[in-house]
Amino acid sequence: MWKPDSSGDRITVIAQLNARVQPIDRGNYFEDPLDEALRAAGLGEVAGGGTQLTSEPDGIAHCDIEIAACDSTPSTIEFITETLEDLGAPKGSLLKTAPGTNGIPFGKLEGMAVFLNGTDLPEEVYAQSDVNLLIASCDELLKGVGCFRGYWEGSRETSLYFYGSTFEAMKRATADFIAKEPLCQLARVEQIA
């Protein structure tokens, strides 16, 4: 386990979430509620976080949450992973309790990315379309199956990230809409978790 920090009473634990979310969303979805749960249980606090960027078209690789835990006992580790899973941590997330280790896998949700073509559609499609309405429509179709959690705007594509029970269920729920929506022409739909 990692050594206590300079105050001598905390262990640094890193939750690497396989979630493609912007910094504000990371705080709203994960950091703030985890911090509240840790403090209420007397097990520590969230000390910070970061978003790891990657090359296009993905934009976001994952995000990290730095946790100042009171200890690294199995019950504390289980509390952290279960809380993050309850908050929507996707499959492929890792809890790193020691430097240079692979980490403890956790996460339950699967992810779906819709990569919207931002350069090759007719100009009138871009002029007459509203990506926010597209997101709202997908969210409505995904009720009970998943929800929108974030986006990335690159130079050629805009990526929309949805997380839910299974990729296949989310893909089925949105397939007809994506096939007919003008802004989704030339879009790619891929599993990301």
Task: Write up this protein.
With 193 residues, the protein is an alpha+beta fold. The chain folds into two domains: 11-106, Alpha-Beta Plaits, CATH 3.30.70; 110-191, 2-Layer Sandwich (Alpha-Beta Plaits), CATH 3.30.70.1280. It is built from five helices and nine strands; from the N terminus they run E-H-E-E-H-E-E-E-H-H-E-E-H-E. Strands 2-3-1-4-5 form a five-stranded antiparallel beta sheet, covered by helices on one side. Strands 7-8-6-9 form a four-stranded antiparallel beta sheet, with helices on one face. Strand 7 (146-153) and strand 8 form a beta hairpin. The radius of gyration is 19 Å and the shape is elongated. Residues 1-6 have low confidence and may be disordered.
CATH class of the largest domain: Alpha Beta
Helical proportion, percent range: 25-40%
Report the mean per-residue pLDDT as an integer.
93
Q: Give the tally of structural domains.
A: 2
Order of helices and strands: EHEEHEEEHHEEHE
Care to count the β-strands?
9
First-last Cα distance: 27 Å
What coarse outline follows from CA principal-axis ratios? elongated
**Content-based structural category:** alpha+beta
Number of helices: 5
Return residue spans where pLDDT drops below 50 for at least 5 consecutive residues: 1-6
